[in-house]
Amino acid sequence: MSLSPGEAALPLRKMRQACWSAKDAYTECVDSLRKAKGDEFEKIPTSEIELKHCFLERRAFLAACPQQWVNLLT
Predict the structure, then answer these.
(1) Which residues contact 63 (CB under 8 A, 6 or more apart)?
(2) Its domain of life (predicted)?
(3) CB under 8 Å to 70, separation ≥6 — which residues?
């Protein structure tokens, strides 16, 4: 039994939706930090944002998205 094109695309669609949701959550975290810190935000190293302030969101983003997508989306 073979899958129809729509059925075959369903797993990819779900993966894409999960990836974008995780990316949006990470972006919202970074944006919230940017608003809270104002001018000081530019002084925060990217590694600190990723490992301290938005760690859970970043981890979910990396887990939900293929590395190629992460590279394209960041």
Answers:
(1) 22
(2) Eukaryota
(3) 61, 62
- Structural domain harbouring 24: 5-73
Tens of pLDDT, residue by residue over 7-55, are: 666 678 899 999 999 999 999 999 999 999 999 999 999 999 999 999 9
Residues in CB range of 18: below 8 A, 6 or more apart: 64
d(CA 61, CA 64): 5
Looking at residue 26, its amino acid is Y
The pTM (predicted TM-score) of the whole model is: 0.80
CA atoms within a 13 Å half-sphere pointing along the CA-CB vector of 72:
7
